[in-house]
Amino acid sequence: MTTTSSKTTEAPATGESAEATETAVPTTAPASTRPPHAAGSSHRTTGSAYPTTGSAHDATDNAHDDNASDHGYVHGYSPAEARRLGNQADTLAELLHAGTAYPAGSRVLEAGCGVGAQTVHLLASSPGAELTAADLSADSLDQARARVAAQAPDARVTWHHGDLHELPFADASFDHLFVCFVLEHLADPSAALTALRRVLRPGGTITVIEGDHGSTLFHPDSAAGRATVGQLVHLQAAAGGDALLGRRLHPLLAGAGFRDVAVRPLTVSVDGSRPALVEGFTRRTFIAMVESVRADALAAGLTTAAAFDRGIADLRRAGEEGGTFHYTFFKAVGVNP
Amino acid sequence: MTTTSSKTTEAPATGESAEATETAVPTTAPASTRPPHAAGSSHRTTGSAYPTTGSAHDATDNAHDDNASDHGYVHGYSPAEARRLGNQADTLAELLHAGTAYPAGSRVLEAGCGVGAQTVHLLASSPGAELTAADLSADSLDQARARVAAQAPDARVTWHHGDLHELPFADASFDHLFVCFVLEHLADPSAALTALRRVLRPGGTITVIEGDHGSTLFHPDSAAGRATVGQLVHLQAAAGGDALLGRRLHPLLAGAGFRDVAVRPLTVSVDGSRPALVEGFTRRTFIAMVESVRADALAAGLTTAAAFDRGIADLRRAGEEGGTFHYTFFKAVGVNP
């Protein structure tokens, strides 16, 4: 971990309560490879009632958990999931990372870096920052290291293997925290935020990005499609997470002691005018994510194969001629008092 | 109707297919009084199976329909509804009207101006435009006239009483069309768009704004609250409308022959950091809208009084300490080939 000090603070996203802001260096993140849902410090519960096996194609390479916990990464750790995370991150990089750029020398912790899908975009937006990337899964960290080596060979990253609830860093070790698609997989996101705030210096910022599957809208609408998304929400809840967490980022951060919390909705809106998003988001990010829980949904008795497959088929229609698909992420920025 | 000619065209909102754009004059609309859901050319079906009676407080002043049709304005025509529309428009003016400003002298038709809730904001953003405002309800037009006289006394507006499906204007009479919270109340929005395109000159633009009640997210989440919103959706569908229309604006406009259609999601995100929106949007716009169909929902046997009231009470929690509320509008711009 680097110790270069910095006084720069990221501006709250909506600017409605920016009095604590010192400097903001907005940068457009170039598209490379960096995935959401790379929930780092959460992971699949071995032997869970809802084991996540990734997509059927890669189920054999799916047992890399190196630690047990009562949290569950519902999407699993398969190569297919790592690819999905990469697709998601690349497709969404500009949307999610816009406005997030840390000054050279600032000490940044990415808590829950997973396979490094977001890490490479963080590095692209903040090339001079001193980044520490932490994750509970050693296997994910290995993948993150490889991804950064391939895509940002000159980047300096300190890798930390451990639980974000029990980070060994001294109080106020970091100027900024970045937490993307992690809280949704934790049993107690408030406790995680409180633990993270300890290592953030006073005046430093936290940036949290989460989705909310309840925001999913598609045309043609379909009860079967909605039910299939609901089964993913159910499985994630059963694994101790919350796929509807995005909507409550403000009270979560405020409750954990951050102030000047500002939350911005970031909606991905996909229709025939955006063919790249149809492929990159509707199909390879969202539908792939839902489809990956098929075996778990069947094993849990939540649905039948026919009903699940009909739901997926209906979701796919949103990516066809005349279809539309919409999903809202929430990006929160708060300041440590 | 004015006949001043103009060659200026509003830019497609997302700019992804702006080749036909000639000029755009973005202006921030000052907040005055102009309401969404002022569905103009649609109105309540007299004697409908789902009569809309407005809020219980104003049910006595609720029979101003001057025309029959097979469309239904599910929210009714009460003074309370007119106030709600005004609150909604004022609260959302900046969000919805940003980027919509028409050059001086351009011929603009607001189709379905209702009580003028959006009209006054259009006038504020485009003070030099030659505006024609049309609505099917003579009573609503009277209210619109009064609103404009009070809030924009110097504005020149040509008022037209009639059905937007049968406008008496010559082909290509307008440079721009503005249609806000109207299509959601029509039995055949495609037919309406086709009829409107006839009076738009080649190269002219249409701007359409619609909500989508399926986008409603709130915290704390509540099945009762969601069910209550669903009852409004059901009633609107029974009246021939579609409260989930926002998501399908792109195929609707493209299907009606507009090109370079660009749709932007506009999400209102309300939490403790935005107390004005808690009052102006969550309570006085959204919850008031849902609450106004209470009698109809009960009459239609969709719910019980206790269940409906519990849903409203749960929705109100979203406006209390620690609560959040989110809703997405969709704004589409298309060009007439």
What overall geometry of chain A do the principal axes of the alpha carbons give?
Answer: globular
* Arithmetic mean pLDDT of chain A: 81
Structural class of chain A: alpha/beta
| Termini separation of chain A | 23 Å
Summarize the biggest pleated sheet of chain A. Answer: 8 strands, mixed
Report on this structure.
2 copies of one chain form a homodimer. In chain A, strands 1, 2, 3, 4, 5, 6, 7 and 8 form an 8-stranded mixed sheet that branches. The first copy, chain A, has helices at residues 79-97, 119-125, 138-151, 189-198, 223-238, 249-255, 275-291, 294-299, 305-317; strands at residues 107-111, 130-135, 157-161, 174-180, 200-211, 217-219, 259-270, 324-335. Chain A is of the alpha/beta class. Chain A is globular. In chain A, helix 1 (79-97) packs across helix 7 and helix 5 packs across helix 9. The first copy, chain A, is built from 9 helices and 8 strands. The two termini of chain A are 23 Å apart. In chain A, 61% of the residues are buried. At the A-B interface, strand 6, helix 6, strand 7 and strand 8 of A face strand 6, helix 6, strand 7 and strand 8 of B.
Question: How would you summarize what this structure contains?
Answer:
Chain A has 337 residues and is an alpha/beta fold. Helices cover 32% and strands 18% of the residues of chain A.
Draw up the topology in text:
The structure is a homodimer of 337-residue chains.
Chain A: H1 79-97, E1 107-111, H2 119-125, E2 130-135, H3 138-151, E3 157-161, E4 174-180, H4 189-198, E5 200-211, E6 217-219, H5 223-238, H6 249-255, E7 259-270, H7 275-291, H8 294-299, H9 305-317, E8 324-335
Parallel strand pairs in A: 1-2, 1-4, 2-3, 4-5
Antiparallel strand pairs in A: 5-8, 6-8, 7-8
